Amino acid sequence: MFKSIFVIIFAFTGLVCRAQKVIEPNLPALLKANKINVVNRSATEIVSGSKKNVLHLDGKPDAGIAWIDDIRFSDGIIEFDVKGKNVLQQSFVGIAFHGSNDSTYDAVYFRPFNFKSTETERRNHSVQYISLPKFDWPVLRKQHPNQYEKPIDPSPEPEEWLHAKIVVEGADIRVFVNNNPQPSLVVKKLSNGAKGKLGFWVGYGSDGDFSDLKITQK
């Protein structure tokens, strides 16, 4: 009897493991193959410190996205490394997901210039969730202050690489930074989209560096 139970549990565990799909895109290869659809930005491959195979998005007015072709994300985990800069109001870097077009998507992004600020209110605006087009940051900050944006503790260095892990489970979104087991941001999803495009995101006037994307889909 115990042996039968063990076999059933083992078989079930195997099915769960196989149900998860892990994708680790080769960003430079996709860029060369025109498999990254860049909106309102130019994308180039660069070397940044010890990191190679880095995707760089330049800075321009309005937001920009580098959609990754052939990836449709629903539930699971998004992990990536990102680097912005410590320049006030000129560094908004993150990722968009559940995108249906270039103006309708959810996004999680960081404001590195706020990470180490001596002003509490600015530190409270270090990591942000938005859901466009209805719920951009001004609407959320006015209607739900300090709910969809939070500080990061411990605060990262604003000029260094940051590791982001975004867990999406149905309507629940949790954001983890630099392998901290405690989430920096926990929110309920504001959009109805359950599956859509995924891509790196930069805000108004911002450039950014991105690397080591890993997607675990359920």
Short summary:
By secondary structure, the protein is an alpha+beta fold. The chain has helices at residues 2-19, 27-32, 120-123, 137-143; strands spanning 21-23, 36-39, 43-48, 51-57, 64-73, 76-83, 93-101, 104-110, 127-132, 149-150, 162-169, 172-177, 185-188, 196-202, 208-217.
Question: Helix content range of the residues, please?
Answer: 10-25%
* General shape: globular
Averaged pLDDT: 92
What's the end-to-end separation, in Å?
32 Å
Percent strand: 35-45%
Q: Which architecture per CATH?
A: Sandwich
Q: What's the CATH superfamily, by name? A: Exo-inulinase, domain 1
Radius of gyration: 18 Å
Sheet with the most strands, sense and barrel status: 8 strands, antiparallel
